[in-house]
Structure formats: C-alpha cells, structure tokens
C-alpha cells in the first residue's frame, strides 16, 4: 500500500484511528516498566507509542517478549528524562531504558520522503526478541559501538540500496516508512489508548497475513535480513506471506552475503532458539534461504537427503522448541552442534578411517566446519569452544574407561555432550547401551560410582524385559564399531 507522507497537521487524516473499544489491547497486559516510560514521555510533552511486534502480539493474545516505544523525543532528550538510560548504536541511534533485567527500547520517529528505491529508512530493531548478549554494550547488530555520535552523516546507503545508517528524524507519519511489515506497523497511543494504523496492518494481523510495506524488492534490497524476518514470522506466528512479498525472495537471497556475519548470528538465534526452530528450518529450506545462511549444512543435506544427521537435527530442533515452551534453558552451543553435525562428520571422513576417533582429528574437523560458515554466521568464540568440547567428548562417552569415566562425568560440557549422544542413539548413530550406561552412572551415588569405576562392573538394563546384564570388562559397555563422534553418512 502506497502512502504519501504528510505533515503533523494531517496525521489524523493519514492514520486510521482505532478506538479503545474496537481493539483488544489492555494496559493490564503491558509491562509496567513500558508504561512508566510511556507515561513519563507523555507527561513531559512528547508523543509516546508502543510500536512493532509487541502491539502485534498483544492483538493476537500473545505475551510480548519485549516492549518497544516510538516517540518524537530525540535520543538525548530521552536520556535526560531517565537516569537509567543509555544511548546505543551508530547505524540506528536508540535509547535503552533499563529496569533490572528488562530493557525498554525507545526510538525517535525517523523521517522519510516519498518511497523511492534505496531511499526508505530501514527498520532494523522493531521486533520483539533480542537474543544477543550484552545489548547495551555492543551497540547495533553491525558491531558499531555507542560512544561516538559526532559523525555528521545521518543517512548512508550502499551501492545495492542497503541502508547503512539512518538518523534523520521526523514525525510519526514519516516513521511508518521505516517499518517492514504491515503487521509490525501498528502504533498504540498511550494518550488515549487508540491504535493508529497507516497501512492495513490491523486487518493483516487479524487475518494472519504478512505483507511488506512498499515495493517488496526495494525493501529486501535495503535490508536483506527482511527475508529472514519474513521466514521467522511465517514460522513463529503461522502467518502467510502474501504472493507479492514472497515473489522476489528466490532471486534476492544472494544479498544476504553482504550482511554482517555478526548480525546473521543474532538472526539465527531468533530463528532457532525462540520456540519455533523446527518450523523455521522448514521455511528456510522452502524459501531457498538456508543455502545462504548455512551453506555447508544445505550442501550436506542436498548430498545426503533423509540421512541420520538430518533426522537428528529435526528431532533436536523439536526438543529445543519444547524446552523453550517449558521455559527451560537452551544454548547456542547445542544449536550449532545440531546444525553443523553433518558438515563436521564430512570433515572427519576426509581423513583416514583409523583417525576418525582421535581427539585432535575431531577438533580439527570442528574448526574447519565452523570456519566454513563463519563468513555468513559469526559464531562467537565461546560457543565455538563449547562445540569443540562436545564433539571431543563423544569418543569418551562411547568408550568409557575406568576412572576416566568419572572425570568425564565432571566435565563442564558433559551434560550437553551426553544429550548429543542420546540424540545420536535415537537415530542409530550411537549405541543405545552407552546411553543407558551413562544414565545408570549419573543415577548412582558417589560410593557406587567409585566402586563401578574400580571394579569395572556396571549394570545395564536390557531392552524388552526386566533382566539386567553385568559387564566387567573394565571399559564399560562394549562399543559398537559403527558408532563414532563424527558419523555423517546417510546409511
């Protein structure tokens, strides 16, 4: 839908104003801290709106993860109002207001002329989830820090039309053009509890329809990450991407190669660690986006369709979604163990078979697989190191030896490595008896564990009955020759 930006005086004519009795949003479902920010801005003479994913989710009856505020107050003016405020970002200057562990993001309305190609302001941060650690310290998703605001250049666009910086401020009528999807472009006005709709987003939310504002190809070129956001909203909200917004994706996926890898890491976490990872994976494959985001994984799956590693990945993503829904912790380390298991296995198999189980060879394979994806998704070093530990522990889990088993049990990554072994066993890539052996060891007390390690005698429950089998080889249960830490073949 095309709109012509106008002055503040024409705001009521441009926006469709939906009164309180015609929408389902209640202040009782809004974060008290977000309400504090909204009311202080209003009482100080500024306009104050909730905007973006939080308004959409409130309309859908969902609980928003974050609450974002839009205002006509400049970032420096917001900072003066809140002692607990920090200005962040060079690409997009924002105010973060901190209330303990909750951060309310406050963005100033940005200006826009009529939407010409490559000239629309970019919405990089109007959604609900933010999974990158230390947001207040790291600045924007391109890695720019928050210290320096003296650069006089307010808007920068690269040769492909991607907006690199946008700090030209305007009014709410112009701000609509920095929003991406109509469903994310609703404004909740704290002054009278109305919802302002400029582009049919109210009906799109009700119909669960996902539509880009403006020309889709132009919007994707400005910010290729919008293609990933479209996939994420399809997966998360069960929205249907309209045909006009879907059509350019196939020919524009290559533009993701120009997005900073640190930003794509953040988007990857949003795709896979917020409760809809399995569906996100399916949408990424269907839209042709997986090959650009995780090329070595996409190539592996093309070479080995329906392989055990693929089955393990799908089962692992399903388990991760269940953990998120149960409010249990999930980690990027385990996620990337799932995503890169097949590529790591292929790297292992490039070496002579007699080296497949050596720790050094496994670690080298992990490093090569991580390096292959790093130019697209910048996996932080702490997660890459955790990945190395998980894979290095697999041979020890498959072949426990005496007291070394007890040391393995105390390893900081044991639980994650054991969970990986368990998933491997479920799809036939490891011996299920090994899983039972370690479960038995974990359930034993310290005295029993010591006795088991000294005598080598363990009890493993047998499948299909109550009988137990005693093993006393001193090595734990015998390892099946086919199971190994980096198994990747389809058979």
Summarize the SSE layout with pairings:
Elements: H1 11-14, E1 16-18, H2 32-43, E2 48-51, H3 53-60, E3 68-71, H4 75-81, E4 85-88, E5 94-99, E6 102-108, H5 135-138, E7 155-157, E8 163-166, H6 172-175, E9 186-189, E10 194-197, H7 201-207, E11 209-210, H8 216-222, H9 225-237, E12 240-241, H10 243-246, H11 249-252, H12 261-272, H13 277-286, H14 290-293, H15 295-303, H16 308-325, H17 332-339, H18 341-349, H19 359-374, H20 381-392, H21 394-398, H22 402-409, H23 414-426, H24 432-443, H25 446-455, E13 458-461, E14 468-471
Parallel strand pairs: 3-6, 11-12
Antiparallel strand pairs: 1-10, 2-3, 2-9, 4-5, 5-6, 7-8, 9-10, 13-14
Helix pairs in contact: 9-12, 9-13, 17-20, 18-19, 19-20, 22-25, 23-24
Summary of the model, kept short:
The protein contains 25 helices and 14 strands. The chain is 45% helix and 11% strand.
